[in-house]
Amino acid sequence: MTDFGSGRDGNPATAVENGVVDTVCFDLDHTLCRYTRPGSEILSRAFERVGLETDAPWTVDDYYGRYRTYLEESSGADDLRRRCFADLAVDAGYDRETGRAVADAYGEYRDREAVEPLPGARNVLETLATENQLGLITNGEPGMQRAKLEATGLDAHFETVVYAGYDTAAKPSAEPFERALDALGSTPDRAVYVGNSLASDVAGARAAGMQSVWVPHGQDVPETPDPTPTYRLEGLAELSSPPW
């Protein structure tokens, strides 16, 4: 575990010094759970389905990188993917219908319940729940995210769930964090947010005035993360002994 030791103003966080944290909120995808089949495999099959066997005009990282751009304007996960893939297809020199066809194939192959908790997730939630109230703040279509929570059995641990991009603006806006804290009767100085994304999770927590715990899960870790999280963990299991 790395303690970057900075609060939202760049000074040691008061909540860390006083030990008053009693609220822990989490991201879902790639923080608490993951698909049992990687997105890259699903996308490859979708390309084959529409006749692009020898060509991969975009990657699953391209999709994930643009995902939150479409959250607020889409009516659901399938609509979001069709909008995103249509734009990715145009960027790659294809027509929009090709992108939509890939999106439809991707949706058919993707089993929303084929998910599993990340190592340590269940134990961490059970441990933290003994002294903290827990919330979930996730960028994602409510039906899809609820299916993941139910499939993994993690849903019972959370006192509130905010589907950012649908209930509120998408992360990294401060709004979903504020919504969760309000539902939990908590305040930013008493709260910590745990996630895997610097751009969405750490930035969003910082915007809301919360401490952040970054768990990169195999991502490349820059020498100086930007924005700077309060803590960086090597793995989720480290939260069994909270660093704050």
UniProtKB/TrEMBL annotation:
<dbReference type="InterPro" id="IPR023214">
    <property type="entry name" value="HAD_sf"/>
</dbReference>
<protein>
    <submittedName>
        <fullName>HAD-superfamily hydrolase</fullName>
    </submittedName>
</protein>
<dbReference type="InterPro" id="IPR006439">
    <property type="entry name" value="HAD-SF_hydro_IA"/>
</dbReference>
<dbReference type="Pfam" id="PF00702">
    <property type="entry name" value="Hydrolase"/>
</dbReference>
<dbReference type="GO" id="GO:0044281">
    <property type="term" value="P:small molecule metabolic process"/>
</dbReference>
<dbReference type="GO" id="GO:0046872">
    <property type="term" value="F:metal ion binding"/>
</dbReference>
<feature type="region of interest" description="Disordered">
    <location>
        <begin position="216"/>
        <end position="244"/>
    </location>
</feature>
<dbReference type="InterPro" id="IPR051400">
    <property type="entry name" value="HAD-like_hydrolase"/>
</dbReference>
<keyword id="KW-0479">Metal-binding</keyword>
<comment type="similarity">
    <text>Belongs to the HAD-like hydrolase superfamily.</text>
</comment>
<dbReference type="GO" id="GO:0016791">
    <property type="term" value="F:phosphatase activity"/>
</dbReference>
<dbReference type="InterPro" id="IPR036412">
    <property type="entry name" value="HAD-like_sf"/>
</dbReference>
<keyword id="KW-0378">Hydrolase</keyword>
<keyword id="KW-0460">Magnesium</keyword>
